[in-house]
Amino acid sequence: MTADPELLLDASDVAKSFGAVVALRSASLAVRPGEVHALMGANGAGKSTLVKILTGSVRPDRGRIAIRGHERTVHSPGEARRNGLVSVYQEPALIPDLDIRANLRLTHTPIDGFRHWINELGLARLDLSRHARELPLASLRVIDLARALSIEPDVLMLDEITAALPANLTERVLEVIGRQKGGDRCIVFISHRLIEIAAVCDRATVLREGATVGVVDVTRGSEEQIVELMLGQPVQGIAAAVRDAASAAPTDAPSRLEARGLGHGTKLVDASFRLGAGEVLGVVALEGQGQDELFDILAGAVRPSGGELLVDGRPVSFGHPADAIRAGLVYIAADRAEALLMQRSVRENIALPYTARLPGWGLIDRASERERIDRAVTRLQIDARAGNEVRRLSGGNQQKVTIARWVAGGVRTLLCFDPTRGIDIRTKNQIYQLLRELAAAGASVLLYTSELKEVQLACDRAIVIFGGRVIAELDAVDADEPALLRAAYNLRAGAQIPEAIAAKAVEATLARGDAPGPPPAAVAADAPADPVGEEGAAR
Amino acid sequence: MTPAAAVPRASTLRQVDRLFRDRPVVPLVALLALLVLLYEVARPGVVGPTWASGIVAFAIPLAILAGCQTLTMLTGGIDLSVGAVASMAGFVTATFVAQPGGWELGVVIALAAALAAGLLNGVGVGVFRVHPLIMTLGVGLVVLGLANAWQIATVTSSTGVPEQIRTLGSDRFLDIFPYSLVFFAPLALIILVGLRRTGYGRLLYAVGDNPIAARLSGARAWQVLVVLYMISALMAALAGILLMGLTNVASVTLADSLVLPSVAAAVIGGTSIMGGRGGYGGTLVGALILQVISALLTALGQPEAVRQILFGAIVVLVAAAYTRVTAES
Fold first, then answer.
1. What value of ipTM does the predicted structure carry?
2. Positive or negative torsion for Cα A111, A112, A113, A119
3. What's the CATH number of domain A239-328+411-494, 3.40.630.30, 3.65.10.10, 3.40.50.300, 3.30.70.580?
């Protein structure tokens, strides 16, 4: 078989099954030197599997991989790296208990090159002696990227690199990726965000159900084509349906959940807000502004160091997640590895809350359990073919399982922390639609999302947290992306977003951590723009 | 091209792999049958109902102790105090033979003492987060010390294995059916059903698979663990009393030599020492396999030292092979 020497990487007819589940049927990917190539597909289409095969961490059942025209069998990530193939995976590949320098040494990464790239990527202040465990997810992703860049690979594969990044870091990352164009190497870029694809990619390969269904030149207007290829059917009306439900939400419902001045350490200073029955309240914040602590407190995972929490008007104090659950507050984590029993079945994962407390320790009524779980599986359209072990499901299906766990038994207050991170458009719409339906049935939803565009889609109102304080509250009609971004950076309405302030705000959150750094107010005060006082913005 | 040629072989292998993963008991039973066949080759004519009932009778105390390991290993723990607790329970029972209240009182006191040891284990592991290895090893030592003290205190009174317990432990109905099976079968059934069909059983898996997820779902791990280690100690005590009846010996170190085999039986049976995976069915077969291997080595007439070396090597080999075929490709 002859291979085109013009191509840097040419994979064709790649297939892989995990047990009964076919992850890839016939995938192909051909990239030229100097291009940024998007790899697109809905959840479970096989993108991650293809990347893992190309970098040697999964063996294909079938297929041909050629690098610079020479056919290669890639047996291990080390071999892939010697062949010039390097990948940044969805999960940070750093050892949490080692400091960054040791992590770099472990992978034989040139430190000077790493320094150069980490500066380029906007984390110049990174302290290499910090342990990976202490750093926020966003910095770990950027460190992973800088490490991969400093190895100077021929083919760099980035799997959802921007998924957990705040807006300003995303911009830097895209800029650096864009600058790689036209050289000798190429970048394979996986993202669910079409805007990013349009901004940096030259061509896109689209996967659907384990097979390559098309290669598209990315130009203005090609997004529609990509989406249609991805879904296999034109998408219309889903977003509109969600929006219709949103507009029907009640406005003066009784208060379900009320936070008064909640605080935790130096991260969360003063979180005050009200969540009404039947309402979806969005929470918007840059990375590390205290939203993690807020959700941990509400879920009963940690105790607040100050403030008051009221459920249905009565003050409550949670010593354990079980207390929060009894008060009707259930938590859906963004990190699926945190929420799921990966080796157990879909059924056991969904039924877990029922068996968790002492009264549930006895014999299980299997008939009623099956009925309840089947209902949840149908309602969330979970593809449970590989349901014996949840780890074999795709990311989107796993996320649905974490939601089904709480929806199966009727829910009063749902705390969702970035539930759509790294999930395809269709699943995302299903999740938002479900949230709207739950709200319409009287449930309250607190929804933190890193995807600002989606706040208007799913929420009735949104609050903005900055530096551990709730600094603004917006109605859905006003909560468009620019308004939310401005609020998230604590800027006055109408002001521009200077890069410098943005970077400073994020850097401040990175610098904080072991030592209590400058208070967030001081960060805002350095900024040339006049920050909004908290009294002025909080209503 | 090579991949095409490799397909048929790969798919057969994969079928075997899948069989191992989904039904781990099947290959284990095959291994057991192979070992029995080896025994028949080594000592023709011995294998029969009487031989089998002897194997079963001796495997029962081991299977109960391996049950302790299975349950604790599912949560990512281990119970190394089972040897001391089992020996203590047998010994305490024996010292009450000639006392007012008789051996029945002895059994009650032995079980209560075992529950106390289990409570200590459970509180240490569940509440104070001591590593189960350290905690149960320490408690095992404490129990051994207390049993020794009890031995000194009761040195004047006569000890003996009660008649009824000897019957339960070693006699067989019609020379075939061990009475201990009447006692053991319901216990095994409770464990098997309990792990699959009760909320508590599911929680053992949940706590072992992902403690954070279990906590976020409202499970309080300390409750689960305290109850677990108490169940484990209770089972160990029952195994010790049976073992005393089986061997007609009461000693404070009677069950010590069964601790390692009890862990090995659970591992061979497919229970992951990391927690979250496994079950009691495999453990039962694992206990039988170990018992047959041990009988086989005895039948081959090898000296004790060789038997120990072979036994250790075989346990490691089987465990390694098992881990290899059941691991994700």
1. 0.84
2. positive
3. 3.40.50.300
